[in-house]
Design brief:
Layout: E1 7-9, E2 12-18, E3 20-27, E4 30-36, E5 40-44, E6 50-55, E7 64-66, E8 72-74, E9 79-82, E10 88-92, E11 105-107, E12 113-117, E13 130-135, E14 141-148, E15 151-156, E16 162-167, E17 172-178, E18 184-192, E19 200-201, E20 207-210, E21 215-219, E22 225-230, E23 234-241, E24 247-253, H1 261-270, E25 275-281
Length: 290
């Protein structure tokens, strides 16, 4: 990571009183996100007006994104799809690849849905490397990467040529080349020495991610930090959106590192709920996927 002094960025609170907000997505003029601990999918506008717009699984470790035709995908124990009538159906059978459930998702410009899984139950099992799988538009399923040190947020560049994934337990962002058939190759370190979780990419090719402490940073390939957003709690994910794409949304909450994930969820569910959606001005609009 660069030792240059990054530019500090101020924040404002858009929404609070959450358990844990994750997987933020700017969609149809609002920020949508997974509300962990409640099983809710929430959408909030720029005035802070929010509503529950769908359901996901209970507990931790699930995310949302959309197919090109507008149908919503939800990860968790399996990959589900919301139909126009509101019903939830299995989008693809991933059980032959893994049975541990699926965490983050990103759907690229070709309609390929990339999902990842940690390979172990966080806070319960011993660490095991995770994987990335892809579901093609025709429904074909295959594993495309393994050996990921706790896979988390993923982005695809605007030209559909590169997938970047957070390896949270390795404190790095890892990039792959994307082939025309959705396969991944040429694995490489994109940036290290950070604390990545949910990520987003902007039109300058920079990634917003966690710093490894109570801050979000805007990182260039190679690790140079250009902007830094200081926080009073842990960032779980970032997303760019708003009318011109230059509003940075940060999902943040008080997370006790010494507690198990279950204990943190139980504490935050019963209150006080410390989860917030924060906003900050970004120097470049969002790009690529999600």
């Amino acid at each position: 990571m660069s030792t240059l002094e990054p530019t500090a960025v101020a924040t404002a609170v858009l929404l609070d009183g959450l358990v844990i907000g994750e997987s933020p997505r700017w969609h149809d003029g609002r920020l949508w996100f997974a509300h962990w601990g409640t099983g809710e999918i929430i959408a909030v506008d720029l005035e802070g007006h929010s509503e529950v717009v769908g359901r996901g699984p209970a507990g931790l470790g699930w995310s949302i994104d959309w197919l090109p035709d507008g149908r919503l995908l939800v990860t968790g124990p399996e990959l589900l799809r919301r139909e126009p009538d509101g019903s939830m159906v299995r989008h693809a059978d991933l059980s032959r690849i893994a049975d541990h459930g699926w965490n983050e998702i990103v759907v690229d410009g070709r309609g390929n849905a990339y999902v990842n899984g940690a390979g172990f139950r966080f806070g319960v099992d011993e660490f095991r490397p995770g994987i990335i799988a892809v579901v093609a538009p025709d429904g074909a399923v295959r594993q495309v990467a393994d050996g990921i040190a706790f896979p988390n947020g993923m982005v695809v560049t605007p030209d559909n040529s590169t997938l970047i994934v957070s390896e949270s337990f390795a404190s790095r962002l890892t990039a792959f080349d994307i082939a025309d058939d959705g396969s991944l190759s040429n694995r490489r370190v994109w940036a290290d020495g950070i604390g990545p979780d949910g990520i987003c990419i902007d039109a300058d090719g920079c990634v917003w991610t966690g710093s490894g402490a109570n801050a979000c940073v805007r990182v260039r390939e190679g690790g140079e930090v250009g902007q830094r957003v200081e926080l009073d709690r842990s960032p779980f994910a970032c997303m760019l959106g708003g009318p011109d794409g230059t509003t940075l949304f940060i999902m943040a909450q008080e997370w006790r590192l010494g507690d198990s994930p279950g204990d943190n969820i139980a504490r935050l569910t019963t209150g006080p709920r410390t989860g917030r959606v924060l906003t900050a001005a970004a120097p470049a609009p969002g790009a690529g996927w999600p």
